[in-house]
Structure formats: C-alpha cells, structure tokens
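Now for one protein, fold included:
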Amino acid sequence: MSFLSPMFSANPDPALLIDSHCHLDAAEFDGERDAVVAAAHAAGVGQIVVPAVHVANFESTLAMRERYGCWIAFGLHPIYVDQHLDEHLEQLDDWLTRHRPVALGEIGLDFYLPELDPARQEWLFVEQLKLARRHDLPVLLHVRRSQDRLLKYLRQYPVVGGIAHAFNGSTEQAEAFLRLGLKLGFGGAMTFRGSQRIRRLAASLPDSALVLETDAPDIRPEWAQDVPNQPANVARFATVLAELRNSTPLEIARLSSANVLATLKLSF
C-alpha cells in the first residue's frame, strides 16, 4: 500500500475520532504501518497524535506527520531518564522551534519503576515545562504513581493545557488536573471490568474532561491482550465509554475530539 498524500487531515470532521496518544512509529508496527493506519481510518479515526519519547525517535515521529499527516509532539520520556543528556534539552528546544509540533510530550514522572532516579526525572520534567511555556505549547503527560508530585510542578510552572495520558488517579487528583486546565486520557485500561476506579471516573467526570487514546502499541484492551494495541481500537473505546456514560459512540467521538482540539489549541 502506498500513500501518495497524507491519510489524515489537518482539519478532521468533528464526528471523526482522534486518537490522542499513539506511538505509531514504534517497532511493533514495522512492516505493517500502512495497513494499521488504513484500518484506523476505516474505523472512523480522523487524526492520530504521535508523541516522541527520546531524541533518537524525533526523526521517526516527524516521519509520521510527513507520511500520514499525523499531529506530532516532541519530548523526553521519564522511562528513558538514564539516557537523556543535558544537551538533549537543547536539541528538543531546536526541534520545537523548527518543526512546530502540536504539543510537547511525552513528558512526566514515573515513580512505579524503582530504578528510575526521581530527582533526575523531576529536573528534566521542570526543564521541559519551561520549554512548553517558552513555546506556548500544551503538554502530553506520563503520570504513573506520581500524580501529586506532577501536580506540584504544574502549579509552579503552569502551561497552556495538556493531557494527563492513561489517567489512573483518584477523583480528587482528577479534579486537580482539571482545575489546571488539563484533560484526562482514557483507553485500554478502561475496557477491563475489574478496573473499577478508572471506569467510575470515565463514567462520572464532566464531558469537558475526557479524551480517548490508545497508547498503541501498549495498554492493550481486554479483548486483544496478545497482540499490539492499534489506533483502530479507539473506535471500540468510544463504544465502551458510551456505555459507561449512557451515551452514544457518536456523541463520545464528538466530545472527545472537541476536547483534544481545545487542549491542543486547534480547530475543526
């Protein structure tokens, strides 16, 4: 399959879904990426946001925009904290200037993995918040067992908005993110009936709080745990969220897409 022009539009139909967090450049999609994108488009996905995680994949992230028309972001992910050098922040600043992504990300804090130096993580996070402020960009946040500390820094270095991706905090923490102008991402974890806290939040938060995501190829849904997650699954996630909220998939698509556009400062 060959794409002579981008699959995704810069101005998608408001009834189409937006996958607000998808690592489309990941190695799991090598050799079948065109088919994965075509399947997403056929499922009603009108746009995909692809965040970078390391300077080493800035180029492949940019390629997702050039080949498919995806919206992209650049950032230094906390899981790779041992690999991020101080000079990578200068490179990030340069890429933000030259390539004008829609957001800065994926950035944040991960206190789940004990081997990741928390002090180094926090320093890198703060420096990237400063870059987000300088470039007037929203942020795509990795928040794993770090909600309160991350909120602390967002209060100290407020940004123009963003998304707390794969949100798994308390109701009080969710409300704190919302007060700071951020949206909360829901995806594969929401599909597990045992994920009661996530499902309660998905059911009860205001419409303006929610965005859909896959985190593909990661956070696989309940019905497909043995294969990489795909952006096409965001359509089924919309159905799950509609059931939880006593709504319809179309209404969920519209509100989620509107929320993504609002936080990325874009328009239909």
